[in-house]
Structure formats: structure tokens, C-alpha cells
Design brief:
The complex is a heterodimer of chains A (about 425) and B (about 270).
Chain A lengths: L2 E13 L5 H15 L5 H5 L1 E2 L11 E13 L3 E6 L5 H8 L7 E6 L3 E4 L12 H11 L4 H15 L14 H13 L5 E5 L7 H16 L4 E5 L3 H7 L2 E6 L2 E7 H12 L8 E2 L8 E8 L6 E3 L4 E9 L7 E8 L4 E8 L10 E9 L7 E11 L4 E15 L26
Parallel strand pairs in A: 2-3, 4-8, 4-9, 6-7, 7-8, 13-19
Antiparallel strand pairs in A: 1-3, 1-5, 9-10, 11-12, 12-14, 14-17, 15-16, 15-18, 18-19
Chain B lengths: L11 H6 L1 H15 L9 H20 L9 H22 L2 H4 L1 H4 L8 H31 L12 H23 L4 H15 L12 H9 L1 H14 L6 H32 L1
Classes of the chains: A alpha/beta (about 425), B mainly alpha (about 270).
Family (chain A): Belongs to the ABC transporter superfamily.
Pfam families (chain A): ABC_tran (PF00005)
GO molecular function (chain A): ATP binding
Amino acid sequence: MSRAIEVESLGKLYRLGEVGTGTLSHDLKRWWAKARGQGDPYAKVGQLNDRTKAASKNEYVWALKDISFNINKGDVVGIIGRNGAGKSTLLKVLSRITAPSEGNVRIKGRIASLLEVGTGFHTEMTGRENVFMNGTILGMTRYEIASKFDDIVDFAGVSKYIDTPVKRYSSGMMVRLGFAVAAFLEPEILIVDEVLAVGDFEFQERALGKMKEVSKNGGRTVLFVSHNMQAISILCKKSFLLKSGSLAMEGETESVINSYLLENKVDHSKLTYEKENKSDESRIEKLYLKTTRPNNIQDNGQPMSIVFEIDNKVKIDGAAIAIEIVNAYDERILNLTLYHNNMNFCDITGKFKLECVIPKCRLYMGNYRLKVHFTANYGRTKIEMLNDVCYFEVTMLNLERSYPWTINEMKYIEDYKWILS
Amino acid sequence: MSSNKGFFNIPWRDVLRYKDLLYMFVKRDVIVIYKQTILGPIWFFVQPILTTIVYIVVFGGIAGISTDGIPKALFYSSGIIIWNYFSESLTLTSKTFLENANIFGKVYFPRIIVPIAKVTSGLLKFLVQFLFFLVVLAVYVLKGTEIHVSYHIVFVPFLLICIALLGMGLGIIFTSLTTKYRDLNFLIQFGVSLMMYATPVIYPLSSVPQKYKGLILMNPVTHLVEGFRFAFTGSGVWSWGGLGYTGLVTVIVLSLGILIFSKVENTFMDTV
């Protein structure tokens, strides 16, 4: 397979702080070092980028460091990472907006980057004039734009206003027009940065649909940056994970997303409950989830388990367990119960494991937590109550719909089918 | 693309590929000027007409500066339109990076297209003002004033190219230097208007005292203004030596400009 993009030990050095009078002396030192045939003196001292650490005396920072990868023709690649991991810098270097401080980038084919919609729009000019302006900025010829003009206007849905100056447009209309121009770009390599996050619901649906169309048929190479894991997992087969300016992982989108999620969650104490039983009573010693992804992240439609480890010091009569699943808005979504008459447990002393298996988790995407009641006497006597434990998140990365899922749209997703007769 | 880019590394082939963008930039510059105005393109005429009238009153009437024996209106208008083209080429291109930082930060295209577009739309504006000059010229010719239009007018296009390239060369040097250090911005604002006094726009070269002549002749724009005026009115100096010197300065300034510009365009987004 032929290569579309080859990146070789790419690095990008940035200077922190203000550009002012001090800059001149640095420039002179740098120039002097160069004149003597030495490398950039500040390149050596630059440290890896971690925005959370307080700025040290060191004013130089590697926004990207030692990045090497290849992208084959026709690949659709997602780039994920936390804020400040270097995603946008990478896109800027690849789309030739700024040159790398070290290393090489080789690009074969016509490249277009979409880091913003409607670049170069002039508010005084009409929609028509701006379509041509924006299109030529993105690298189209006037002939190309003219031949697609009607489709562009149609896609944007602003035909009534096309001869009105764009300063009279609503901001949404401007975004639509800008995206419409970009949607009809036909480069061999397309670089897209988080542009789907704008516009209204209907527009997002169109935009995502168009992206899908572009990436699936057409054999085009696409690089796509987004914080929307949903979009990434639908569009991209392969993904890169950036971490503090370096390439932390490269591979199947599925596993890259997992490792991103793993890195993302920090408070592990909230994910499982663990407490050694030092009393003479019966207690839950451990409570944890078995989820499809690491760090308590569960795919909708997949099996999930809630596992108890109970230290039963005394025999319990009529033991019962109730699990409440509560969402982020404190609404009780589910109640999962186990009574002694369903299954004999806590009849003898000792430690045992108890697993509640949900064959198909149907919870809608969002954040949830558990409340657990451990009781005796058929629910009448409280033994132990665990509040707000086992925080978990349900995602719907593999669930496709022609338009994006939005937060809190529903409570759960039922299995269903349609029958036409 | 690599971290080590050579000199003169302007992607000329890309420039050709983006020629439609050049066209759109020029079109934008032209149409945006008369949007929401009643007089529209007529404003192109107003500026040189008013300036000419003021100069006639102030420099010709009050200060009594010689106009080398040709009508004042002709003398000043010829100087004004050619000087305007130079000063606009310089000031507009000197803002290339700062004014377009937004676009440059989002899309790649050969940056050199922006200054080229500025001098091209400036040329269109010049041509419109040139019409005004021709009308003034025609009026005097019809009135029977003795005016010698010389065969040198065939070289006028070369004078214009020189003006445009010299202005752009200086402009792109300034814009490249001001991305990091804005200090020069202050210089350019009044520098250009001061430079006009070192150019025979409001006075003829022939009236310059010997003491200052060398200085005025060192200014490459001098020969262009004088040559332009000579070609159309017969007043002024057509000096092949001077024009050769101007041509040489233009080539040097432009080469230097392109060299600095092509270096700066790589990384200016990091420092702007």
C-alpha cells in the first residue's frame, strides 16, 4: 500500500511566556550558535509538555517530541488525547501552517485542512462571493467551485440569502455555509479538527453523515481530531493517542480509546469499594464492576457484572441484597435485588463471592453509581448500606445512528425491531 | 517539508496552483472598498483630486515651490498617483503577517500570494487614478499648453513594475521583521510619509540644491517619479543610469525580501 503521510522524528519547540525584550537576546544567542555550526541551544533544554506542572525556569517546551508514524493512502485515522497533548499542533505541522522544529514530514498528494469553518469569510461580501473566497483559500479552483456551487448552497440550506452580505447572517448560517464549502472539497488527504462540534442538531447530523460518506467511499486519507469518542469510533479504524507531546499509542481505534480512557480516569478509589472486615459482624469486603472497558467504562448492549466479596462472620436469617443504580441526576434508574428465597446465601459462615450478571446493559450513555443495601430478616433489618460506590460510565461507542447521540436524551435503550407486512 | 528549509524556498509551483486565490484576493480588495457606499469606485478619484488641489494651494500657491514650468495640476497629480502606488504597495504589504494571522493560522496556501494580491489591487487602483491624470493631461493639451509627451512612455510599464516590486520588497521585509518585534510598525507609519519629502513629488529634481542632490538621487523612487513625469510631460529627468541603479536596488531589495519572508513564513505562527 502506498504511503500518504510519512512523519519522521517530528518535534516542535515552543517558547513560553511573553515575547518581549528578552526575546532578542535569545535570538542572538541562537543565531551565534548557528553561525558557529552548533544546534539550537534552547532545543536541548526544552522539556516535555505537561500543562499541569507549574512553569519552571525553563521557558522552552516541546509541544511535540519524537513523533514518527506512517499513514497509508485511504486510511481514516483518529487522533485522540487530552487538552494540550499536542493534537492541534500536530495538525498544524501536517497542514503546513507552521514548520517543525526538527524532523521531517513527507506528504504525497493534494492536502486540505479544515481547522476551522469559513476561513477568510469577509463580512461585507455576499454569501456567493464568500463561497468563492473560502473555496479558493482551501485550494479549489474557481471552475471547481462554480461547478459545485448549487450543491454547496443546497447543502448549507441558505439559498435565499446567498446574495446577502454574510454580516446579516446568523452565526449558525455562517457555519453552515463554511462547512458546506469544505464538504465539497476533494483533496486526496483531508485534515479535520473538531469542526463537528458546531452548529445545531440537524446540522451536526448532516456534517457527521458527510464525514462518514467522505471517509467510507472515496479512498481518501482522512486525519480526524476530536474529543467526541463517539464520532472517532464510528469514523476511524485506526487511531493515534497523543500524550504530553509524544505518540503514546498507535493501533485499532477500539484499543486506543480504551487506553485513553484508562489514562483519563484518575480517582480509582471511586471505582471499587474495598474495606477489610475487622468486626464480628457480616460485612461486604469488596464490591467492584466487571465492565467491557477499563476503569468502569461499560458499552451499552454488552454484558456487565457487579461482584460482591462478602465476609460472613455470622449466619444470617433471610439475607437480602438490593442494588440501586443511580444516574448523575440522582434518579434511581434500576433496582436489582436478591432475596434469600431466590437463592440460599449467608446460611453458613465464611467468605464467598456473589456476582450479579446483567447480560445486556441497556443503560443510556452517562455516569452512574451504585447504592447497596445488605439486609437480614427479608429486608427488615439493616446489616450494611453502601452509598455512592462503584462509579461507572456507560458509553455507546459502537452504537451507530445517522446523527449523534446527545446527553440525557433517554434513560435506556430497549431492544426492538420493526416488522413490515 | 522539513525543519531545515533552504533560502528562497517559496513554493512557486504552488503559487501557480493558487492563482484563483490571487484573483479572489484582488477581487475582494476591490469590491470591499465600495460596499455600502453611494459613490462606489468614484472614491478612487476623490483622493488624488483633493490631494492635488491641496498641494496646488499649499506647495504651489503658499510656499511657491517651482513646478518646472508645467501646469501645477499636471505636476502634482503625476507625482501623487505614482507616489501613492509606491506608498500603498509598501504599507499594505508590510501588514501581511499581522493582518492575516487569523487565516494563516488555519489554512495553508503560499503566503507570498497575499502581498502579490495587494500590489495587484493597488495597480488597478493606480490605473483608475491614471485615467484621472490622463484627463488632466488631455485638458491641457486641448487648451494648447505646450506639453511634450515623450516616446519614453513605452517604458512606463517597466517603471510601474519597478514601483510595485520595490514597494513589495520593502513591505515584505518589514512584515517579516514585525512578526516578532512590533517596534518597526511605529517606524513605518511616519517613515513612509517622511520618505515622500525625500522624493521629488512636490518639487522638481532640478530645483534641489547641489548639497542635497546626492541624497535625493540615492532614493531609488526619485528616478521612477521623475521618469514617469518626464515621459508624460517632458518635465523632469530621464536618467538611464539612475533607472539602472533603481532596477538594481529593486532586485536586491526584492530578493532580500523574499529570502526573509520565506524564512519567517515557516514559523511566524509561533511568534506572532
